[in-house]
Design a protein that fits this description.
The chain is α/β, with parallel strands linked by helices. It is about 15% helix and about 30% strand. Strands 1, 2, 3, 4, 5, 13, 14 and 15 form an 8-stranded mixed β-sheet that branches. Helix 2 (about 160-165) packs parallel to helix 3 (about 185-200).
């Protein structure tokens, strides 16, 4: 076993000060594949650089020391496959939303082409806090909501693409082709020619179907060069990573790997299937890089962040160390940015992720919305970019509040024993025996809630389980109307302060947002109901998030955080729910919202109350020692389950039968 190498170099610029370091991460388990470090170390930072990594650095030598014992400290994670050029297509996300996941560098995978890259740089890259690099699409105009426009071979100009790359060599790290649906190899050949001229790698999307005239074997052995990247490796769109009859990794995939072709996860909404990933990993065919293909279809329900994707792979047998390697050094090498990135070497850029590996029972969802129940989950606790703390989940960097948390007794409701007669109605979904808190109807107690299509069709003390196509046991949870947030900046397309509605509302039980500045483009792109209205009247006890792009990072601003703070002030849970449902509905003149009514749209939230010792950053940016927090476990918007953290509505993949996206 190789001995871990301890780095003793002290960054020179810091030595002029009495306390040479700006920040010391103390007592964490450092995993730094670049330097073969895998053990307990302190990490000192000065002037935005890594100053020293050693076994025991005195806290007296730093302006600020942060205890990270029992946590993992790694180089900032690198996501090789994202989509963040907001004007390029609707299927894009706000770049800085990756920062709470320990990701400090992302690569936009081909949303822009040479014709519109300058706009991408000016409107997104130059304004983001996360480092954004890009693969340039071989189609000059880039990706489009009308994917047929990506079939325009006349718009595929290798020389113009290479020229744009040479103009921005520090940002443009390669070429991308995707979504080409015509027969033949035109898009692939043009992309590889551009990569050859620019001396850059090419990332190839799938788009190999039965009618394409292409096949995966020729793609990876004849078309792709060493260093080119094959993404969506665990999907089943005729990519043939596995032999469908034997379950073995195809010999030509092993051969392609030997000749230097790289394999990227590219999770997305179609690129990660449990049976493919499990078979490949069990045979030792691990990914080279862990790109997420992050976009609106993968960021919420599938939770396709880098740590969550590593968690999925770990629960299939991959080690944490292998995961960190594939999210740091490997992608940095793939895009020619190593050792500038992906290392905790002295003098390196201080991009750092502090991660927590939890043990327990967790649900993970693949691209076919099938569940794997696992026992390991990796989550980000802190993210540093250029030495600056941009995300701090537990408020380690903020002053402690002098307030003392206090809790009102939580409501408990007994099960209803009487069972009324029920006719022959069949329900799409029934939430069974949830602890319903519905202040608008003064309905409190155990109820079954039945949904057909997008409507609530029945609320009763008891409904027959046999009448439900799908039944969810809600007996451990509180069931409320979908929350209404009337103070949120969601104008994310045309401003640098707006958040993207879905990923900052649906995982927190919010089904309706009100923002008077919300544009029609924002409304069209959101599954959340976005109303372009403001608060019409002042109402006491109204609860809202106040979220914008900055405070979702600095304070984890969300509705569940706001509710949790009120709960820790001693406000009864029923009143807390009223402040997030009935009262905001009244404030925006929409009293049809915020209640559970038969015949109304099925907008429903389900919560659990976790009790223990928690840290919450309050509205004064102080760390409150909380005794409870509210966690959303399921959100139903317009009849669809759009958030399900425990996979309560999803079947385990091993019990779901043979499934495939082959076509």
């Amino acid at each position: 076993m190789r001995r871990a190498r301890t780095l003793l170099f002290v960054w020179p610029a810091a030595l002029a000060l009495g306390q040479p370091y700006d920040l010391l991460l103390k007592g964490g388990h450092v995993i730094d594949p670049a330097n073969n470090i895998d053990g307990i170390r302190d990490v000192a930072i000065a002037g935005g650089k890594i100053a020293r990594v050693a076994a025991d650095i005195p806290a007296s030598e730093t302006r600020r020391a942060v205890d990270v014992q029992r946590l993992y400290v790694t180089p900032g994670l690198i996501d090789l496959h994202t989509h963040v050029y907001l004007k390029g297509r609707a299927s894009t996300v706000v770049a800085d939303d990756v920062l709470p996941h320990g990701t400090t560098t992302i690569v936009d995978a081909g949303v822009s082409g040479w014709k519109n890259f300058d706009d991408f740089k000016a409107t997104i890259i130059d304004r983001a806090q996360v480092r954004i690099l890009a693969l340039l699409n071989i189609v000059g105009s880039g990706m489009n909501d009308d994917q047929s426009k990506e079939n325009n071979v006349a718009d595929m100009d290798p020389r113009a693409t290479a020229a744009k790359i040479s103009q921005y060599p520090s940002i443009l790290v390669g070429v991308k082709t995707a979504h080409f649906s015509l027969p033949g190899w035109a898009a692939v050949e043009h992309a590889i020619e551009a990569g050859r001229i620019a001396n850059k790698p090419v990332m190839l999307d799938s788009s190999i179907y039965s009618n394409s005239g292409r096949n995966t074997r020729d793609k990876v052995l004849k078309q792709m060069r060493p260093g080119d990247i094959h993404t969506h490796m665990f999907n089943d769109h005729q990519l043939e990573l596995l032999n469908r009859f034997t379950g073995k990794v195809q010999p030509w995939m092993w051969e392609a790997r030997k000749r230097g072709v790289l394999f990227d996860v590219g999770h997305g909404a179609g690129g990660f299937l449990w049976p493919v990933a499990q078979a490949a990993i069990s045979q030792g065919f691990l990914p080279d890089t862990i790109g997420t293909d992050l976009h609106p279809g993968s960021i919420v329900m599938l939770q396709a962040s880098v740590p969550n994707t590593i968690s999925k792979l770990m629960n299939l047998g991959m080690s944490l160390q292998d995961g960190i390697l594939r999210a740091t050094v490997n992608p940095a090498k793939a895009i020619g940015r190593y050792p500038e990135l992906a290392t905790l070497s002295a003098g390196a850029i201080a991009d750092v992720a502090v991660l927590e590996l939890d043990s327990g029972v967790f649900s993970f969802i693949d691209s076919m919305k099938k569940k794997l129940t696992g026992t390991k989950k990796l989550e980000c606790v802190m993210t540093l970019r250029d030495g600056k703390v941009l995300f701090d989940r537990d408020g380690r960097m903020v002053q402690a509040s002098s307030d003392t948390a206090r809790l009102a007794p939580l409501p408990t409701y007994s099960r209803e024993e009487s069972r009324a007669e029920e006719g022959s109605t069949i329900y799409d979904l029934v939430l069974k025996q949830g602890r319903v808190i519905d202040p608008g109807n003064k309905r409190y107690g155990r109820y079954d809630i039945a949904i057909n299509r997008n409507k609530i069709v029945k609320i009763a003390k008891w409904l027959p389980l046999a009448h439900a196509r799908l039944a969810v046991d809600a007996s451990e949870y509180y069931v409320t109307p979908g929350l209404i947030d009337v103070n949120a900046n969601v104008n994310f397309i045309d401003s640098t302060s707006g958040v993207q509605p879905d990923q900052h509302s649906l995982p927190y039980g919010v089904t309706t947002l009100a923002d008077p500045k919300a544009t029609q483009a924002v409304i069209r792109r959101s599954r959340t109901q976005v109303l372009p209205v403001g608060v019409q009247t002042r109402i006491n006890g109204l609860i809202s998030s106040g979220m914008n792009r900055q405070n979702v990072l600095a304070e984890q601003a969300s509705m569940t955080r706001a509710l949790s703070l009120r709960l820790n002030e001693g406000v009864p849970l029923t009143e807390v729910v009223e402040g997030a449902t009935v009262r905001p509905a009244r404030a925006i003149g929409r009293e049809d919202l915020g209640v559970l009514r038969e015949g109304a749209a099925a907008d429903i939230a389900m919560f659990e109350i976790q009790q223990g010792d928690f840290a919450l950053v309050d509205q004064n940016h102080r760390r409150l020692s909380a005794k409870a927090k509210i966690v959303c476990v399921m959100t139903i918007r317009n009849g669809d389950v759009v958030w399900d953290v425990h996979g309560l509505s999803i079947r385990e993949w091993t019990q779901a039968g043979r499934y495939t996206s082959y076509r």
